[in-house]
Amino acid sequence: MVMVKSFDFNVAMLQSGLTAAGLLDFVKKQRSGDIGGGRLFEDSSSGYVRSVAAHARTSLAAQDTSHPTELYAGVPQTCLPIVYHPDYNITFMGLEKLHPFDAGKWGKVILFLKEEKFLTDGNIVEALEATEEDLLVVHTKRYLNRLKWSMVVATITEIPPLMFLPNFLVQRKVLRPLRTQTGGTIMAGKLAVDRGWAINVGGGFHHCSGNRGGGFCAYADITLAIKFLFERVEGISRATIIDLDAHQGNGHERDFMDDGRVFIMDMYNRYIYPGDGFAKRAIKRKVELDWGTEDSEYLQKVELHSEGALNEVRPDIIVYNAGTDILDGDPLGGLCISPQGIVKRDEIVFRAARRRGIPILMVTSGGYQKKTARIIADSILNLHQQGLIGAEALVGEGSSSPVSSVMCNSGPAGSKFTAI
After folding, report:
1. pLDDT by residue (tens digit) across 61-105?
2. In whole angstroms, what is the distance from residue 197 CA to residue 125 CA?
3. Are 153 and 218 in contact, with CB atoms under 8 Å apart?
4. Which residue range or ranges hold the Histone deacetylase domain (predicted)?
5. In which element (H, E) is residue 298 found?
6. CA–CA separation, 396 and 384 (whole Å)
7. Would you tell me how many other CB atoms lie within 10 Å of the CB of residue 117?
8. Active site residue ranges
């Protein structure tokens, strides 16, 4: 029996009055555990608490590692390795406004980049929706079946009114955009290896693991991207996750708890959601921040620890979770980083990767203010101005990508790609 143990929707919604301010307060209370005593849904028959380590391992067991997928199909060389699809944006009768997350920020990022003449419709890589077979590389069938219950999706996305909608609408208007962003992250992982860098303008659902969702994260796109690379791309056997979202990335941490191939650096506000003590055991370089941390201290720690992480273990791929919820004024992040600080942070991480010639995949993750879209666009433009991304930045400073050629299984016979 599936049991949603997170909160009492009816009481909470009556208290909030379904106002934007009320829903923000609702999310804050739910994330802190003040409503219902919990934050994530669990399967009450799974014995989760008693066997969490076993679940973390089995959630990564691929159902069919050789299944055909379109996500590794060829991309024209005229395209920049920037992945996006208009379906990323969630719009449905205004319900998306009931979560503090700007559910249309991804399209705004692209619009800004087009206005600056950096992107055109012809040089963007169009994301494809991850299929059920793609998702089963990491997710259990049982977990995916739970998403067919609107109440479960309402819990994960923190949008209570979704529980009252038919699930076919929830699938179409909420989960399909998230599956498309997940497909975009998997595609961007392959592009990063081929081109030296890639950016998925969406994704970064770092609270979701193979059998558990929460915090607006329904699919484990970071874990999926890494698992796809490990299983399908020759020469990729070690990955480093640099997670600089304001929140702890407990999803990928649970997934890679016992996997020595993945090094996790996580820097987050120690006092906010999810506070997952078990998942913290997977972090190899843990940096816990205090409320109100500002630019100077923050950027020093970013540089010190990102350099330290890459010096400690040289990976074949870096997955950079570049959440903008560290921005001063974010209603859920609790940090005080300026827009300029965010731009500089991204530059530090990309420069560390480029200097070593390590492919880097960036996902945009959290960010709960309307102005975050402009900041993400400005950061991408700065990376280009600094020569860290773009056609002229396909190899690192003084070294090339460690993978000269890769094979992907995009069909029965597979397809061959050659890295630049």
Report:
1. 444 456 999 999 999 999 999 999 999 998 766 554 555 557 789
2. 13
3. yes
4. 99-379
5. helix 295-312
6. 14
7. 7
8. 207
